[in-house]
Predict the structure.
Amino acid sequence: DAGVIQSPRHEVTEMGQEVTLRCKPISGHNSLFWYRQTMMRGLELLIYFNNNVPIDDSGMPEDRFSAKMPNASFSTLKIQPSEPRDSAVYFCASSFVGVNQPQHFGDGTRLSIL
Amino acid sequence: SQKIEQNSEALNIQEGKTATLTCNYTNYSPAYLQWYRQDPGRGPVFLLLIRENEKEKRKERLKVTFDTTLKQSLFHITASQPADSATYLCALGAGTASKLTFGTGTRLQVTL
């Protein structure tokens, strides 16, 4: 079975450029989560969707970040304009809706903003 | 504010011994707790879930305890192997939503 698929795996871009990260959740899962991981702050939840609807975006750092889920099989996280402090590994995870559900993570996008 | 603490220093143990990792939390009343394993360059992988009304959960060589009075979970790997070397993350869930709050993880190194 295919797991959560993220693209690209690595992204290097210059400050000020727009960055788009993509995620395909596991088929049948109806919750999707975007996380950011850094050495200093660990794994932080940015936003999550249930049934394609954003439920909690309180972790989104600022207006430069936006996320969409146009359908059950695709989500994007966009940063515009990007800044060096956005450099991190971004993970997407999916699960079934509900409490107690284990989350299935992709292998992340390593983002470097120069 | 809510705080989840895992030992930031790496835990080094010898093959065959039992590894014990700690997850402490404050200003939080989780309904459940999950443990994940993360290998370098990979996403976290779910291992075990334990609910607030459960004291202990086992799966093969893994055992998790959950003490809501001490606000602590312990994660044990018995008969540890070099392949168990990884970073282990605990994550707390409030029980009213799908979201999890993760600790920063503890790196385990099992040597021959």
